[in-house]
Structures are given as C-alpha cells and as structure tokens.
Amino acid sequence: QVRLVESGGGLVQSGGSLRLSCAVSGRTFGVYAMAWFRQVPGKEREFVAEVIGSGGSPNYADSVKGRFTISTDNAKTTMYLQMNSLKSEDTAMYYCASRRITMSRYEYWGQGTQVTVSS
Q1: How many angstroms separate the CA atoms of 66 and 62, rounded?
Q2: 88-107: string of b/e by CB count within 10 Å (b at 16+)?
Q3: Least confident span in 6-15, 26-35, 54-63, 64-73
Q4: What do you get for the CA distance between the two ends of the chain, in Å?
Q5: What is the C-alpha to C-alpha distance for residues 45 and 18, in angstroms, rounded to an integer?
Q6: What's the pLDDT band for 98 if we cut at 50, 70, 90?
Q7: Which residues pair with 70 in a beta bridge?
C-alpha cells in the first residue's frame, strides 16, 4: 500500500525558514498529483500547495504564494515544501498527500509533521 511519511517540522521563529519533506513508498507506476495540506485543531483542513506530474506548474494557496515552494524529484518519491518568511499563522500540522490524476480527491495521506512558528 502507498505510504507517505512527512518530516522536517519543528519550532521556528517568525521570519525564519523550514523545509518539509515527504517520502513516498509502495506506489505503482503512473502519474500522480502530490500536495501539502495543513490543519489547526478545531479548524478545517486547508490546502497549501500542489504539483501534478513531473513537470507541471505548481498551485498555491493565496496565503503562501511567494513564500512557499513545492517540488518533487523526477520519480515523485520525495516531495518538499520550502517555507520562507514564516508567520505565526503558518503554525499547523502539515500533511502530505497523493492521488492518481484521474481522482478528484486525495486518496493517500501521511501522518503529519508539526510546524510551530513563534512570535
């Protein structure tokens, strides 16, 4: 079965940077979309960024445009989220996700990595 494992979260000061990574295993050949979501307790899960295929243009939530960069390796076995100019409102549990491009909803999820931005 497909397994996604996030890492790289931690405590960082406002204005600082972090790079999250997501290791993917157990996935068969095909074209996938991969994405990052985040969630704060008591609030709905929020879309952060998405990349489709190996060379597609990424999509970003308005709240992170210009600050976050999503990327994957060619085989899409590893996904990254470079986060710069972090703000306190970026504090959340960050999840990586994957789906086949024929699916409209993300079907595979990691367990999350916590990002806490201090003021």
Answers
A1: 9
A2: eebbbbbbbbbbeeeeeebe
A3: 26-35
A4: 40
A5: 20
A6: very high
A7: 81
What are the beta bridge partners of residue 102?
none
Instruction: Round to whole Å and give the CA distance between 113 and 106.
Output: 18
Ramachandran angles phi, psi of 8, nearest 5°:
105, -5
Residue 70 in 3-state DSSP?
strand
Encode pLDDT of 67-93 as tens digits.
999 998 877 789 999 999 999 999 999
Tokens matching residue 100: 């086949």
Q: Tokens for 47?
A: 């879309």
pLDDT in tens, 37-64: 999 999 999 999 999 887 788 999 999 9
